[in-house]
Amino acid sequence: MTTSTDQADPAAQATAESYGFQTEARQLLKLMIHSLYSNREIFLRELISNASDAIDKLRFRAIGSPELVGDDAEFAITLLPDAKAGTLSIVDNGIGMTRQEVIDHLGTIARSGTAEFLAQLSGDQKRDAALIGQFGVGFYSAFIVADEVEVFTRGAGTDAGTRWTSRGEDTFTVEDAPDLPRGTRVVLHLKADAREFAEDYRLRTIVRRYSDHIAVPVRMPKAAGTPGDATDDAAASAELETVNSAKALWTRSRSDIADDEYQAFYKHISHDFGDPLTWSHNRVEGKLEYTSLLYVPKQAPFDLWNRDAPRGLKLYVQRVFIMDQAEQFLPLYLRFVKGVVDSNDLPLNVSREILQQDERVTTIRNALTKRVLGMLQQLADQQPDDYHAFWDEFGTVLKEGTGEDYANREALLKLLRFSSSKSTDRAPRTGLDAYLAGMIEGQDRIYYLVADSWETAHRSPHLEVFRERGIEVLLLHERIDEWMMANLHEYQGKTFQDVTRADLALPGEPAQPADDEPAGPLAERIAAALGERVEKVRPSRRLKDSPACLVLGDDALGPQMRRIMEATGQKVPESKPLFEYNPAHALVQRLDAEQDEDRFRELVQVLFDQATLAGGGALADAASYVERINRLLLQLLSD
Ligand code: ADP
Predict the structure, then answer these.
(1) Which residues does ligand 1 sit against, CB inside 6 Å?
(2) Hey, whose CA ends up nearest to atom 13 of ligand 1?
(3) What is the rounded distance in angstroms from the CA atom of residue 591 to the CA atom of residue 547?
(4) Contact 549, 462 (CB under 8 A)
(5) What confidence category does residue 236 fall into, taking pLDDT thresholds of 50, 70 and 90?
(6) Which residue among 96, 248, 489, 573 sits deepest, i.e. has the most Cβ atoms within 10 Å of its Cβ?
């Protein structure tokens, strides 16, 4: 993709080179410029955020190599507007970039899944803007307000500076730039309709709104005379003043922080455009001292299901930024949580490897896990609508925890939400506590049903007796559910019971074990007709409206596990269902009276196939089913 300008002089060879943006970067740039039109000011938050990250990185590197900082140790971000020229420069004295880093970082998007993400964008501006917001627009947001961007940068500890420039279309140019100070200067040549971003007052307002809490001072030339009067040179020589509060938000006391400050900080660390759903800010003192600020987002990130997607908290040690995505502080099933943990007890030179083994980290992780679960429980208790919104976005991830986190299982179970047989709405809104409260007299089990879809679950023949008796059944229809339920045995002393299994205990009735039901003459006749296809045939206690249903043996694999194993090419262990018929049903009574054995067999096959379909299963031989039905229809029509 390099189209190097041919230079005869080898020394100058590395100088001006033009590159094409990576395809994804190019697409994102285009979309961003068109979709984010109504929220343009966020570019400043993104660029200040990058500058602050660059300073954080240098501070961290300087712990081991103080010479990288040298005399220029007063870290700051400086905004230099030039209203006359229509430019805005954002200057930092952070880590800077080498020429190669400039090419890599400002020409590509490294996050995996970007292509899939872009494919989700629809062209609908509002929807796309929200999606791009979750993706995190970063540096490229400069092109929302600028038609040309220049970046001058020199990496800490290197001598060679680099100038990057682009109009945000297909290409960018990189060349050597002598005599640059350490760090990065981003110069925006503002579009004609974005000149407001060179105005002193406008900039101060945006900084206060979005970047107040950044630990690094953001400085601007002292406002003198008419705002925007100064030229770039004059501005550079003017006296500077700090315009943000320049104190890390989490170090302040909770009672001094307004909600909108918490929200702005969330946007800074998450690159999300929207507000968080809830947060929790705590300082722990005693043997182990640390502060945490944890947020639950409103919307799931586009790559929630990508196992390599960035996750984890920002780790600070004694206020020094150590790393992003410190994933050791929360379990995987809480990967949607964003935030900061700042510890006074960990060493500054802590590495990911050390974090994995450190007992203090385990202690903090356990406490933060409880903290998040507590925060969610509080949301569920106090703002149920918000909790439902949370559940719809992240419920499936939280379910992973039931099989992984035994220590917090009870708390996790309390947070689960299910669809219910008592509701015609598929939305999962029933918690286990609500379920227990609605149990009928004599009920000591929590009944549930797992199916491939809500429709199949909701209309399952297995629910008939429960509906008649007013017993609620929890309906599960996500891929993870069968796995989850296999791990769960009881809640508050009440056993979970799958209603599609052979051994079904109903309140006030003796259990109906799979093996000791005396089979009547009709059962024997049906069993002979079905032969190898079934384990057993018996009259049903669960059917009221349907003629027949299939029941799983107590140890048999359920439909979801079966499908997962088939999809992953594993051999599915053979297991035959039980066939239950409803003696009170007109069809079954008609069947019982049928004298013609061929016709009897034909009808039984149809009932069996229909029971398979009603349970959400696929017919092994659909063609025979269709032929059979057609034969019966013809007989019916010619009778
Ligand atoms: P992100 O910050 O999410 O990684 P960006 O598109 O904002 O994505 O930036 C891409 C990369 O460019 C950053 O990760 C960083 O390595 C580099 N970068 C951007 N701005 C600066 C800066 N002011 N100083 C040093 N490096 C920077």
Answers:
(1) 50-51, 54, 92, 94-97, 105-106, 136, 138-140, 184
(2) 105
(3) 11
(4) yes
(5) low
(6) 96
